[in-house]
Amino acid sequence: MIDPQTVMANLAELREAIARAVEDNERASTDVALIAVSKTMPAEAIRPALEAGQRLFGENYVQEAKAKWPALREAFPDVELHLIGPLQSNKAREAVELFDVIHTLDRTSLAASLAKEIQRSGRHPRLLVQVNTGEEPQKGGVAPGAVDAFLAECRETHGLAVSGLMCIPPAEDPPSAHFGLLAAIARRHALPVLSMGMSADYPAAIQMGATHVRVGSAIFGARQMRG
Ligand SMILES: *Cc1c(COP(=O)(O)O)cnc(C)c1O
User: Fold this and answer.
1) What is the tally of structural domains in the chain?
2) Interval between CA 109 and ligand 1 midpoint (Å)
3) Within-domain flag for 206
4) In sequence order, what are the residues at sequence separation of 6 or more whose Cβ sits closer than 8 angstroms to the Cβ of residue 97?
5) Fewest CB within 10 A of the end CB: N or C in the chain?
């Protein structure tokens, strides 16, 4: 496992790099938030980031987050937890209970399940619609051409307030065109949140208007394959 000193050093370096990208693009430092992606990382790897003041964390799997975060949250109650992985409708209840922001709203059935659980629980996680900017069949997300109708449906049929958009560009493409497309759709709908940019491409995302970058391996090191 990665040692605590390395996590702290990586995080400090990343914060500096983000600050440089923010400055280079004449944006305000408060415009860009860092989500530390801690999927597959044990609590001992996450604690040094918490101790260094990091408060926004991203997880991909509901069950894993449920196992790790209640204890960490007791020690750090102001943590903000982001679900950035695909969400099955039958996990909507747990997701609404656990997460503050859900980045992966991408289909009608999930909108219906989330609306039901939000009403039942009285909890209101912020919601982002994932857009499949590369139209990759294996990836989640709404096709760019279907976003307008999907946003209208979320609002009108399900009473859901959507705060912004999220994308994961195809690994083989230069990411900027995808970030630009996501930013244009968000602008058209006056959506304030843009979740885009990972370890390999967060400077480009900041340049294109990201408000949230999701960075994992640059902080916590390479992940083991998930078995
Ligand atoms: C894993 C993951 C990240 C972080 O990726 P890194 O390359 O490790 O920074 C960001 N966003 C999503 C949706 C992810 O699944």
Assistant:
1) 1
2) 25
3) no
4) 121, 123
5) C
